[in-house]
Structure formats: structure tokens, C-alpha cells
Amino acid sequence: MKSYKSKPLGELADDITVGFVGTMASEYVSNGIPFLRSLNIKPYRFESTDLKYITRDFHEKIIKSALKPGDVAVVRTGKPGASCVIPDSLIEANCSDLVVIRCGENLDPHFVSYYINSVTHSHVKSQLVGAIQKHFNIGSAKELAFPNLTKKRQSEISSVLKILDAKIELNNCINAELEAMAKTLYDYWFVQFDFPDANGKPYKTSGGKMVYNPTLKREIPEGWSSKRLDDVISRSGTGLNPRDNFTLGDGDNYYITIKDIEQGRIVFSEKSDRINDEAMNIINKRSDLKAGDVLFTSIEPVGVTYLLHETPTNWNINESVFTIRANKAITTPEFLFKLLSSEHLKVFCKNSSTGSIHKGIRHTVLKSFPFAYAGLELIKQFTKITQPILQKQELVNKENQQLIQLRDWLLPMLMNGQVTIKG
């Protein structure tokens, strides 16, 4: 096995700076220079969702924090240490609350991003500062012990890992399309009320009778009724807080919190907390997770959901995650999952969440959510169509998890020479 020397990242990079620090609310415009925030930086990738814009004048005023393709952006707060390379598509951009690494002649940007995301997680975690809101600052970045490999060697390593990332991204695109299909079907049938009528035509558009429902304060299809979430579930619960119950960090089981749950999937990583078998048994008695349950994040971000396709054996949840079980006599897990993932419920949660530091929603409030109930027959028709879509998403998610684990395993192996690249 080969070894490599290390140097502080600050000695290898051309520059390490920080994004703009200041009030931004009045500076945003509908079109202009892209302005990145921490939510736009995900491990290994740029996320354009909810991207903000600023004027060119303001961009020039804060030019020190300007971004260009090839820079590496690292999240300072929230999920400190998450990083990605600024893509070629962002010819001009600016940012706030990010550490910006300008790589120069000594560093391959993709290798830098891989290294910070993967190998340096424990170092990043140890370098976090701030009593309340932990963050990763410029000093922390400059002090990172970075492998003193040639840029050519860095590029060779990152080229292998980018092949895996390309497959991961392709899978993400496939799942995004599958998610769009399931969402469109749910909205079409249960929001717009254009489910197939007796003749196979869209109900409302074809003149299906609508009646006013005083509870929901709107018209719904004839024969439908109003129900609360509590009416269609057989069980709801949470995981367990480790305080006075067990100790984190010991064991091979994952302890899942809201940071590990993304819409429609759970992300197992080195950043996930761990627990031992004894702690698992303690939590199992409380959460009682079963295949078909829906996980629901109860604090910000409220309402991120995941459908369990099988009963978990090596993970469980903390107290900030609700577990909700369908009453199969009147609904299905698949319909419950889409109901809990719906825009109507998100609006309800936004209006009903409370809390001075971290906003969240209580069980009793969530279970009071009202909705138009179509009846079990139509719900079963919906499930017959959506179940294969959701199962395919789960298979793709599992493949991605395996690819991610392979990528994270390969990086140190390639650096140490335990795995070699043949041209």
C-alpha cells in the first residue's frame, strides 16, 4: 500500500474565501445573476431548486464572493462540509453562507469536492464552530489536511468517481420522472377530480356531478365524503430521543433523523448516526416500524415522507420522525404516502406548525388534516397503477445507495494505491 503526504488545503489552493455576509431579502430579483445559498449545494452536485437572482450592479458590488465554473463551494451552516463543483452552466454567479475554494494549478476541483464530502467528514465535524448554529469557516477549510498528490493523479482518481456519479445522476433523473408520474396521477384523480368515470372518461371534465361539502368548504364529487387523516390510519408514533435511553455512536445500526430523509428515500451515509443492538431493541418497542408505514418529518423541513417497502432490520428513527400506518380497511399505504406527500398537506403543515427555534407539527394537529375521501374502490385502482412506480423508485434508490457506498470506498483505496487505474 502506498502512502501520501498531506498539506493544509490553504497552502495548495489559489484562494479560499467566503460568500457574502449580510441581509439579502431586498436584493433578490426575478431574473439576473444566479445567487447560490447553502440549499443549492448538495454533496457532489449543484441543486437549482429555489435558486435566487441578484442584479448585475449588486453582483459587481460584492464581486469578492463571485463564483465561476471550477470553484468548489462548501456549505458553512446547516449541513456543513457538503460540497460540489460549480458547473460550467453557471458562467456567472454569486453566493452567501458558503466557503469558496478557488483551486488553481495544484488542485483538481472534482477531487477536492470528493475529498471534502467523503474522507474529511470527521475532520470537518471536529472543526465546526459556533455554540448554537454550528458552521464551517475559512480557517477550518484552510487547515484541512489535504493529500499532496499531483493534479494529474487527482484528475485520474476523480475521473473514475465521476463515472459512478454519472450513473447516480441518471438514476436520479429516472426517479424524478417516476415521481412526476405518480404525483400527476394523484393530482389528476384526487385534486382535480378527473379520475376515470364509469365510461373511462375524466369525471369532472366530462360533467360528473359535484356537490358542496360544508366541512371542506368546497365542491367534491358526488358520493365522496370528508375525512380527517385520523380516520384513515390505524397507528401513529415516533422514534426515541437518546437522552436517558441509550448512547449514540456505538454500533452498526443506523439512527435515522430528519437529516437522513429526503423525499421518497432514506440516505444512509457516514454522516448518519449509529446505535448498537441494545438501543435498536429499545427503539423498536416504541416505533414498531413495519412494511407499509409512512415516515413523516415533524420538524423543519416538515412533511418530508418515505414509504417503507420492507420492515427495516438495521435502522430506526428518532423522535422528530413520525411513523404513520394506514388502516387497510379503508385505504392503502401507497395512497396514504401520496396523501401525506401532497401539496395540500404541505400548506396545512406550513399554516399549522409552531415553535420559536425549530418549527414543527404535533401528532394531534397532523391527524386533524381534512381531505376528500374517494372510497376504497377508487383508491385501490389508484394503488394498482402507482404501486409498480413506487417499487421501481425503491429499486433505483437501493442501486444508488450501493453506488454511493462504492464511490466512498474507492476514494481512499485509489489514493493509497490499494486500487489502481489501468489506462
Describe this structure in words.
It is a single chain. The chain is an alpha+beta fold. It has 2 domains: 6-149, DNA methylase specificity domains (Adenine-n6-DNA-methyltransferase TaqI, Chain A, domain 2, Alpha-Beta Complex); 173-402, Alpha-Beta Complex (Adenine-n6-DNA-methyltransferase TaqI, Chain A, domain 2). The chain has 11 helices and 25 strands. It has helices spanning 9-12, 56-61, 109-117, 121-126, 138-143, 151-190, 277-287, 333-340, 343-352, 363-366, 376-416, and strands at 6-8, 15-18, 28-29, 33-36, 41-42, 45-46, 52-54, 72-75, 83-85, 94-95, 98-102, 145-147, 210-213, 218-221, 225-228, 233-238, 253-256, 261-262, 265-266, 273-275, 294-297, 305-307, 315-317, 321-326, 370-373. A 4-stranded antiparallel beta sheet has the order 2-11-8-9. A 4-stranded mixed beta sheet has the order 3-7-4-10. It has a 4-stranded antiparallel beta sheet with strand order 16-24-21-22, with helices on one face. β21 (294-297) and β22 form a beta hairpin. α3 (109-117) crosses α6 (151-190) and α6 runs antiparallel to α11 (376-416). The protein starts with 5 loop residues before the first strand and ends in a 7-residue tail after the last helix. The model has no long low-confidence stretch (mean pLDDT 91).
